[in-house]
Amino acid sequence: MSRAALPLLGWAALLTVLTVVLWIWTSDDLPPAIFSGAAGIAWLVGLYALTLRRPPPVRATPDLSLASVLVAIAVVMLVIGALVGPWLLLIGAGALITGLAGVTRELLAERRVR
Amino acid sequence: VSVATATRRVGVIDWVGSTDHKRIGVRVATYAFGFFLLSGVFALFMRAELARPGLQVMSEDTYNELFTMHGSGMFFLVLAPLALALGVYLVPLQIGATDLAFPRLALIGDWLIPLGGATMFAGFATDHGAAKAGWTAFAPLSDIDHSPGYGMDLWIFGGLLATAGVMLLAICVLTTVIRFRAPGMTMLRLPVFTWSMVVTCLLVIASFPALIAALSLLFVDRHFSGVFESPGGPVAYQHLFWFYGHPVVYVIFFPFIGAVGEVVAVFSRRRFFGYHALVLSLLVFAALSMSVWAHHMFATGRVTNQYFSLTSTILLVPAGVEYFDLIGTMIGGSILLSSAMLFAIGFVLLFLIGGLTGVIVASPPLDYHVHDTFFVVGHFHYTVFAGSLFGFFAAVYYWWPKVTGRLLREGLGKLHFALYFVGANLTFFPMFISGWEGMPRRVADYRDIHNLSLTNLLSTIGAFTIAVGTLVFLWNVWVSSRRPVLAGNDPWEGQTLEWWTTSPPPRHNFDSLPKVKSYSPLYDRRMGEA
After folding, report:
1. Cβ–Cβ gap B180/A55 under 8 Å
2. Which chain B residues contact residue A76 at CB under 8 A?
3. Contact A72/B181, CB-based, under 8 Å?
């Protein structure tokens, strides 16, 4: 358990209190529903932080990752493809697969170093 | 005295694909500053149009495009990325880590921002031009009937991509703080700036998904079904938008108050005063700032005014604690008025004006009077320009030697500060008068009544003064790169770990680390030696 998560959980609790007050105060459902979503995310972040452990003393870090850049470009093509047409969606999907394959290859190489 | 290490020549592939957090931070800051210059030029055109009533420097349609892209650029592509860029570069160094968590994710986030920006600005090349619905893109103004053409769609996609990029950077920075702190660096020993980044990242992760939802629904609304066509639809869009739109103001405030806290402590030669109160106030401030969004919507008559007015006013309490701490740090200190310190003091003074006028717009009866007027424009420019950007430049002058190994010229820095201080007040203060007299925002022309021609002329002169200040800064950067003055590892007698390593730091950041016994380990060490 990471004690570093405690401030994050405290923050999530604070958001929850503010959300409950809004639920009580307002007759409209949408604002407190949005706020509840954010409080939920805050709890997830806090609980995730609670599970994090200290990293190993020696950490392999990448120096360069062009595959990650390709993933970013692919995401942009996929998003704009929704407007421009299926041809860009297909190129984007191809680029995404290539990029993710590259990232996987990098991660496997990193694991071998460890 | 140590000298700057030789910088390795960086190739294109290295520059594009490096996962080093320092390269990512510099990259994000560089193109965010590029978008700042572009969006700033748009502001100059707008101010030229408003210099005198009846001028036609541009068409009204072009004016609409410019104010939309100015606001969108500044929020989506400049201030939020700049805030995160500082965190990406500095947080691992301040907590004694070798790198960022999830460096590949950070690299993806890094590239999504400029690609999103390029997508957004590509709207200018389309038939109907760029988006014209304001940076808020309220429905139904942004629907397919009122905003036809690809420009609005590209704006939506650009906003989505840039927001996703900032969110990825925030996830990486927050995880780094949780996982990769140096031995002895407990949460209550994190430097002030790192704490400010923790709350910033929390705000990004919790509030930015609302914008992703709003923009996605807006695209669906435009092309598939009228999501926001129902009677309550436009108000629903506003709730989603402002749930992002208000916290983002704090996303671009907290990192800079953290930076200003570091600068004030170092240039007052004192340890930061009231550290624990500051940490608590940052957490409370961040939580409260998520509960105030609908004060932007008082005029709709569809929100619970009492709740949102109350939470908006309570924000003054944590803000007051932070001001108390900053002033408490300076009192009794041996203050050195460097360029960084001048910008820090400028931040403290000018953000106060932004904050106090915020009390006016937090009060529904007063807000009804000034809603959608230049008063609001003046208010938020005092917070985001005169506040956050002054904090950013305090950070630039303070950490430039660490990043580059070189010093910026102090004389030019002070001239930059003077031009910005005069320019900001000359531009934004008359807007309070224009707005109070009823001049609406987002108009390309106005009638010459209530001295509006005078207040607008002053604002225009101020805007061009700011532009000259920006040129002075660019000249300073040019001079410092052509005729470098080496900074050494710790030119300011810094208090936090980044000043322990070389300038610029090596790939792995540290060869060794000192013992961390407080939030200012180098100050402890210096005091111990004394």
Report:
1. yes
2. 112, 115-116, 119, 161
3. no
Mean pLDDT of B315-325: 95
Confidence of residue B360 (pLDDT cuts 50, 70, 90): very high
Select the residue of B115, B154, B306 nearest A73 (Cβ to Cβ). B115
Tally DSSP H helices, then E strands, for chain A.
4, 0
**pLDDT digits 0-9 by tens, B19-30:** 999 999 999 999
Residue type, B258: G
Axis crossing angle, helix B80-94 with helix B192-223, rounded to the nearest 10 = 140
Answer yes or no: do B115 and A76 touch at CB < 8 A.
yes
Residue that has been written with the tokens 């390029």 in this structure: B118
Task: Estimate the crossing angle of helix B452-482 against helix B21-50, to 10 degrees.
Answer: 150
In the predicted model, what is the mean pLDDT of residues B147-175?
97
Peptide linkage before B504 cis (omega within 30 of 0): yes
Structure tokens at B353: 């004006």
- Helix or strand or coil: residue B331? coil
Q: Who contacts B82 (Cβ-Cβ below 8 Å, separation ≥6)?
A: B28, B29, B32, B33, B36, B252, B392
Chain A contacts of B210, Cβ < 8 Å? 34, 37-38
pLDDT at B11 > cutoff 90? no
CB count in 10 Å sphere of residue B88: 29
Spatial contact of B477 and B71, defined as CB atoms under 8 Å apart: no
**List of chain A residues whose C-beta atoms are within 8 Å of the C-beta of residue B17:** 64-66, 68-69
Contact B328, B273 (CB under 8 A): yes
Which of B174, B203, B199, B3 shows the shortest CA–CA distance to B95?
Answer: B174
| Predicted TM-score of the model (pTM) | 0.96
Q: Do A7 and B19 make contact, defined as CB atoms within 8 angstroms?
A: no
What per-residue confidence (pLDDT) applies to B8? 55
Share of chain B above pLDDT 70, in %: 98
* Tally of CB atoms within 10 A around B12: 7
Tell me the nearest-neighbour CA distance from A2 into chain B, angstroms: 8
On chain A, the residues whose CB falls within 8 A of the CB of B177 are 4
Nearest CA distance, A11 vs chain B (angstrom): 6
Contact list in A for residue B294 (CB cut-off 8 A) is: 31
Residue A1 has a pLDDT of: 65
The pLDDT value recorded for residue B1 is: 32
Residue of A nearest to B186 (CA): A4
- Taking contacts as CB-CB distances below 8 angstroms, the residues of chain A near B287 are 11, 14-15, 18
Sequence-distant (6+) residues with CB within 8 A of B455 are B430, B431, B433, B434, B437
The closest alpha carbon to B195, from B457, B463, B519, belongs to B519
| Contact across the interface for B306 and A25, Cβ inside 8 Å | yes
Q: Which two tokens stand for residue A75?
A: 């995401």
Of B85, B39, B91, which is closest to residue B66 (Cα–Cα)?
Answer: B39
Contacts of A53 (CB under 8 A, 6+ apart): A2, B179
B303 touches A: beta carbon within 8 Å: yes
| pLDDT of B7 over the 80 cut | no
| pLDDT, tens only, B237-248 | 999 999 999 999
What six digits make up the tokens of B103? 């460096």
Arithmetic mean of pLDDT over chain B: 95
Packing angle, helices B390-404 and B452-482, rounded to 10: 10
In chain B, what residues touch A27 (CB-CB under 8 Å)? 304
Q: Is residue B307 within 8 angstroms of chain A, CB to CB?
A: yes
- Report chain A's mean pLDDT, rounded to a whole number: 93
Cross-chain Cβ contact A41/B209 below 8 Å: yes
